[in-house]
Amino acid sequence: MEHKKIVLATHNKGKIREFKELLKPLGIEAVGIKELMSIEEPEETGSTFEENARQKAQYYMKACQLPCLADDSGLLVDALDGAPGVYSARYAGENASDEENNKKLVRELADVPFEKRMAHYACSLLLTFPDGRELVTFGTCNGYIQESPEGTNGFGYDPYFYLPDYKKTMAQLLPEEKNKISHRGHAIATLLKKLATYNW
Ligand code: IMP
To answer: What is the pairing mode between strands 161-163 and 4-8?
Structure first.
């Protein structure tokens, strides 16, 4: 099989490990951008997950001239008109911790009854090629924001993200269970399907 390489537009070690494992069966070597060069992270100024993923993928692709894969994700709450959305990581302010973001989320939803706390996670994945082509996929996962945290797995808003089908929060699922149903898991599965028959 021809050797193919994709650069991962992230500095997150967990994501790099996951993508390496997923792309290997397709004969694709995935390398983190840091393994290739020392480079600052770009600013994220887009108003959608796709725009942010494109910004990151193109920024690193221009620097290394190899196909680059970026993801961008977040939480959207219906009763908050889609907030925190693209601001999920910095909902309570620049460099806010998960705990601070969660605290703000619970505060903002204080007057909203449980049945009106519908929320969804969303993830855009974007693979950009030096010849200008790109592959884009999207995944979502629906749930409700509960009042108190439960579970210690996952990260971010997971302890508050209740999944009616499982009667558990996302943080109570095992990592492999989360990967099967999560926004990121769905976006990755669609990308792998597209890549398996893609000519590049
Ligand atoms: P990133 O795109 O992975 O940087 O995620 C942006 C932000 O969205 C994170 O900092 C979290 O606040 C939130 N987020 C994205 N995916 C998840 C998830 O799977 N669980 C919990 N929070 C998430």
So the answer is: unpaired
pLDDT of residue 100 exceeding 80: yes
> Domains (ranges, CATH) in the chain?
4-196 (3.90.950.10)
Say how far apart CA 118 and CA 75 lie, in whole Å. 11
- Could you tell which of 73, 76, 91 is best to mutate to test the pocket of ligand 1, judged by most ligand atoms within 8 Å of the CB? 73
| Residue 124 Cβ < 6 Å to ligand 1 | no
HSE of 193 in the Cβ direction (CA atoms, 13 Å)? 9
Inform me whether the pLDDT recorded for 62 exceeds 90: yes
Residue nearest to atom 5 of ligand 1 (CA): 73
Q: Does position 1 have pLDDT exceeding 60, yes or no? A: no
pTM (whole model) above 0.90: yes
Residues contacting residue 147 through CB under 8 Å, at least 6 positions apart: 106, 114
Give nearest CA residue, ligand 1 atom 7. 89
